[in-house]
Structure formats: C-alpha cells, structure tokens
Amino acid sequence: MARPRTFEEYLASLVPPSVRGVDRRTLLAGGVSLSALALAGCGGDSGSGSSTSASGGGSAAAATGEVTLGSNQSDAVPKAAIQAVVDAFQKANSGLTVKVNTVDHNTFQENINNYLQGSPDDVFMWFAGYRMRFFASQGLAGDISDVWSGMSGLSDAMKKSSTGDDGKQYLMPSTYYPWALFYRKSLWEEKGYEVPKTLDDLKTLGAKMKADGIDPIAFGDKDGWPAMGTFDQLNLRVNGYDFHVALMAGKEDWAGDKVKKVFETWRDILPLHQADSLGRTWQEAAQSLQQKKSGMYLLGTFVAQQFEQGAEQEDLDFFTFPEIDSAIGADAIEAPIDGYMMRAKPKNEAGAKKYLAYAGSKDAQQVLLAKDPSVIGANSEVDTTSYTSLQKKSAEFVASAKSIAQFMDRDTRPDFASTVMIPAIQEFIKNPTDIDGITKNIQAQKVSIFGS
C-alpha cells in the first residue's frame, strides 16, 4: 500500500478504500505523455472576465466570467468536497462560474512541469514548501500576496509555508496533517509513563519501556519514506528550522558537522527503535502500536488508519518530538499543507483571486469539512465542534507552532529525495557507524543534482 499523501487518507474507517496512498516522489517526471497533453489542455481558452490585478476584497469583488480549476482530488470523497466548495462559491458570487478539471492524482503530479509550461488552469491544487517555491521561482506561479493581505485565521506559520524565496505568497492553504510521536493513553496510564520533554527524558522512557518488554519506538522503513520523518524531526531539533529548509533546498553541506550531528544523535537513539525496520511496512509498525507491543510511533496522523473507529481511536494521543537543544527549542513541527496556487498569467485573474480568497476562508473550509470530515482545515477560525479529539488536538498543535516543515520529499527536489536520501538513510539504518561515508556520498550526489 502506498504512502498516504494527505490527512484525508489517514483514517481508514472514515475514508473509503479508494482514498489511499499516492506516490509523491514522481514530481517532474521527464517526457510529454498523452496525459501530460491532456493536462496542458485543462486550462483551455474558455476563461473570461477581467485579467487585471485584483485582491480578494478589492476590485476582485467585481470579478465575472469563468475561472478554471485544476484539481488533483480524483478520489470520490475529496472530489465531492471540492465540488461542494465550488458550488458554495458560485452561489455567493452569481457573476462567476468555476470549471473544475479533475485529473488522476499521480498523473497530475507526474506531469505538473509540462502542465504549468503549457496552458494551465487559472487556479490549481498543489503543496506548500519547496515544491511551491520551485515553481514560483521559475515564474510559473502567480503572486497572491494581495489576496493574503485580506485574509484572517491563517497563522504566521501558515504564511511562512506559503511564501516564495522572494518573500511573496504563492499558495493559499486549505488542509494539513501533522507528524508527531503517537501513543496509546491506556498503555501509558497502566505503566505510569510520562510525556518526555527532552531527548534525555526520551532515552529514560525508552529504557523503562524496554524493561517492561515493550519496543519503545515502532519503526518500519520497508518503503523508504517513513524514516525521512525521523531525520526531519532530529534536524529541526538539532539545527533549527532555517537550517533544515536551507539543507533541503541544497544550500548547505550534507557532509558538514551539523548534518553529522543529526546522524550521530539518531545513532544514539536507534536502539530504541524496533529492529529489522527495513523489512517492515509502516502499517505493520502501526499495528504494533495498536497491539501495545510498541510504546510510541513517529508518524503522521494517518497512523490512526490501523486503529478501529471509536474507543480505540480515542485512545490514541500524541506529543511533539522532544527538545534536544534548549537554544533551538521544540516549536518547529512537520505538518504537510495542501492548498491552491494561481498560474503566472491567469485568463481570469480577478476571478482566480476571488476564488483563492474564498478557498482559504473558514466558510469554504467548513463546507469542505462537511463532505470530508477527516481533513483538518488550515484556517484557525474553522468551527471544530464536529472534530474528533485527534483532529482537535492536531488543529491546536499546528496553530501553536512557530515554524512548519513539509516533510523531506516535499521540502526538497523529488529526485534527490527518492534517488539519494532513501538509499542513504536505509544504509545508515543498516550501518550506523559509517556516518562520514554516508554524508560524503550524499553531498557528492547533492552537488551533482543541485549543481553546487
């Protein structure tokens, strides 16, 4: 089973079997396929209305005509949720219509580069982080800073994750899901475990769990991507958010002392993880948490997919990865954000910005949540009374974060993540003593891919 891409995929009991994992590491795949040509034609020439600049609350209020929307939400539940948002928008804006062009999720991602360089839709769905900044820096996305200026309910961390290298905003966030250390409350109450605040606390807790015959940290990296989350958490705690983002962007030395310290810290706590992780899927690791054979699991909220709806899911709780350096703290988290971007030169800019302003609002996100109750709205003003306890805590967790990372394979080039980092991290797990060799190899390949 492929990795869940977004938060709407994390609860199997809430989401139909058709809503499942997506391979997010095939971005910018080479070649123009028939599906790429189909994508390039999604924008068409049917757009109408003003093409002048307009903010969400300014002259965009007079926007008319058709706005085209490129959607990667092809599964039944999220597709219906997007249509509900579109319907509500059109009802409130009689002069505007939205034409949704839905494309299979994998196809959309694999051909995004050709799509944006062809004739893309006015607005298209995409991700925060490096993947957003990359297209903005290539001049393939439109500046929506004026739309942001009229928004409320979007935190500074959300804004930072939606900002390009030039300081302008290019993404309107819609939903997200956080990564953290998950545990079963009943097991911890039975054993008297307490949430660790520092890395030393985590080591002490791990030793106690081992003495109780429990694997401290569930771990499965058969598919390559899960361990990326462990590296990210450690790097955020050891070196901080700014260094982490620069490292992912190819601007720092992977063979330097800072990265070596991350691997050294990981090597120190690797014995707390389940053994033989390279032969175990994330689902199998999550099942060990569900069965109380493991005490914790570092993963996204989709870990709950392996828990039965109701009491078992209510028994699931989480905490942020503990502090390692008091000067850096623990207020940077990882919570992949999905949202909307605008093409560089939309056929209906006023209408596009009007839609973006609505999509980022609490009203739009509440409409979406009514159709897809598994997602977390990015706007902090969304009514959370219908949220599960896990959703409520997730919303509070992200709202209180100072900085939000997007996960390694969103924060860096996808080819670097898949062809360099997956084998490098798996080699480290097999042989954690050769940190110098592993980091030198990563750096050499980084130079080859990034050019410096």
UniProtKB/TrEMBL annotation:
It holds the Pfam family SBP_bac_1. Transmembrane segments: none annotated. Gene3D superfamilies: Periplasmic binding protein-like II. InterPro entries: Bact_solute-bd_prot1 (IPR050490), SBP (IPR006059). It comes from the Bacteria. This is Extracellular solute-binding protein. It comes from Nostocoides veronense.
